Each structure stands twice: as structure tokens, then as C-alpha cells.
Amino acid sequence: LEIDNICNFACSFCPIGQPDSELGQFYKTKHEIPKEKVFQIIDECKEIGVNSIQFSIVNEPLANKNIFEILKYASSKKFEDIFIVSNGSLLNEKKALQLLDTNITKIQFSLDAFKAETFEKNRFTKIKKPGLYNKVKNNIINFIKLRDKLGKKFPLVRVSFIELEENKNEIDDFKNFWDKKVDGIHFQRLTDYKNK
Questions:
Q1: For each of the chain's 196 residues, which pLDDT tens digit applies?
Q2: Which of 50, 115, 46 is nearest to 77 (CA)?
Q3: What is the reported pLDDT for 14?
Q4: Which of 12, 43, 152, 159 is the most buried (most CB within 10 A)?
Q5: Cβ contacts of residue 124 below 8 Å, gap of 6+?
Q6: How many CB atoms sit inside 10 A of residue 104's CB?
Q7: Tell me, what's the pLDDT at 22?
Q8: How many helices and strands in the chain, by DSSP H and E?
Q9: Where are the beta strands (DSSP E) in the chain?
Q10: Pairing status of strand 106-110 against strand 81-86
């Protein structure tokens, strides 16, 4: 369930980073489902037996002003799995505590690089910010430490890596670095829909 189309990144392989593509056109104008409508959709999902709900597709969920309230509402409905995907850049300590209070089950952080220069070439904010990779990496590590310090098992934390020509030589380093730090590592290949 993509509750809005807002993201603070414009990654090279994402529709937001390809504003002239057919799909990218949708992300040029802000769209957001009103909070009350999101609650209604959550209720309907529960009524029809949905077990798992994800609140992100292309957007950055932590950029939504209502995300914590929405996640808490979903948690109150006792779904087996409540999941978000984030770029991790907005995850300061305050938001980390708020996120841990929602009782979601999983969060995936999209990194797609082991080296800062690779990260900043493909995953970038609309206004370039040097040092972004280290900030994101530290945000993730600090989130896990905070979760563990509070004695919480959830959310499980997964990092993801989309294999691209310019980062595939970093796969082993990425795996070795994150292997003992996170609950899961997700590798995937990019499907280019531009020419399809």
C-alpha cells in the first residue's frame, strides 16, 4: 500500500529519478491517500483476511507525517506481518524510537552499495549531500542497537542490494559487512522497464 508518492531520494534506477519516463510522470506531482482513507483500507484488508501489509513501494515512508500513526493503527489490527522499505536517511533517534513503538515486524533498508562513492552515484537526494552513505549506514546500525537495548525482537532488519553493473564487484564486501549486523540480506537484480 503506497500511501503517498513522496521520496527525498531520486535514485538513478527509480521512477522518481527518471521523471521523463512514463512511470516517472506520476511522481512529478505529489499524491497522498488521506489518513482516514488509509485506516479504512487497513480495516478492509483485515476483513478480507489479508495477513501481510507493506506501506511502501517507491515512496519513502518515513517522509510521511502520518506514518507512525498509520503503522500503530495497522499493528492494532494484529496483522501477521507489517513491513516498510526505507532508504534510512531520515531515521534519526527520535524517528527510530517512534518506529520501534509501532510494533511493525520488518523493515528493509535499501543500500545497493558497499562503497560511499557507488552509493552516492546511484542513490542520491534531489540536492547532493556528501557523506550520505555513512549517515545512512550509521542510522541503520544505531537503530539495531536501540532495538536490542530496548529488548525488542522486532522489527527484523534487512538490508537490500540491487545488483547493477557498477556495484556488482561490491557484493561480497556488502555481505561480509552486514552479515552479523542485520537479520537478513536481500540481493536482487534490476529489471529495466524503460525499454519494454
A1: 989 888 776 666 666 666 677 766 676 778 899 999 999 999 999 999 999 999 987 888 999 999 999 999 999 999 999 999 999 999 999 999 999 999 999 999 999 899 999 888 877 666 666 688 999 999 999 999 999 999 999 999 999 998 988 899 999 999 999 999 999 999 988 766 555 4
A2: 46
A3: 66
A4: 159
A5: 9, 10, 11, 12, 132
A6: 24
A7: 73
A8: 6, 5
A9: 52-54, 81-86, 106-110, 156-163, 184-189
A10: parallel
Torsion region of 131: left, alpha or beta (phi above 0 gives left; psi -120 to 50 gives alpha): left
**For residue 146, what are the contacts with CB-CB under 8 A and spacing of at least 6?**
93, 96, 97, 100
40 grid coordinates: 479504512
SS3 label, residue 145: helix
Residues 6+ apart with CB under 8 A from 10: 16, 17, 124, 125, 126
Q: Determine whether 113 is exposed, middle or buried from the number of CB atoms within 10 Å of its CB (0-12, 13-18, 19+).
A: buried
Q: How far apart are CA 135 and CA 125, in angstroms?
A: 13
| pTM, to two decimals | 0.88
**Which amino acid does the sequence have at 49?**
G
Q: Which residues pair with 104 in a beta bridge?
A: none
| Residue 120 DSSP class | H
For residue 130, say if its preceding peptide bond is cis, omega within 30 degrees of 0: no
Q: Around 24, how many Cα atoms within 13 Å sit in the side-chain half-sphere?
A: 14
- Strand-pairing partners, residue 188, are 162
